[in-house]
Specification:
The protein folds into two domains: 2-68, no CATH class; 74-124, Arc Repressor Mutant, subunit A (Orthogonal Bundle), CATH 1.10.10.60. α5 (67-84) crosses α8 (116-124). The chain is mainly α and 132 residues long. It contains eight helices and no strands.
Length: 132
Amino acid sequence: MILRELRFGKTMKSSSPAQSIRLPLSRLDWGTLVAECGFRTNAVVERSGYSMRTLQRSVRERFSMSLRELIAELRLKRASDLLLSGRSVKEVALEVGYRQTSHFVRCFREKFGVTPGVRRESAGSDSGKTLP
């Protein structure tokens, strides 16, 4: 699965959020990098120290998806984790960078097949039902 590959390498913390980390592309911790950049493509490019085109090529080769698709995937995965921890749908939508809760709900449902509210409710249930 794609998400397993996203957790590799170590992230070097920089003293300034705008400062680039310029690790070799094969060692970038994409999940951490994208989250630290607020799920914004331009911020990821700036922070990585690579050009937009270099990142696009690298992501396409490694994950068979565009940089934008990878960021969307990581954004929704983070949202799912936050919902499972019991956070409200609105709070999660804002934290992962959606301006409109309705847009977040639509994207989440397309990705996981259930609404964020159902995912959140599953965090407290003992029904044994496994959601995607």
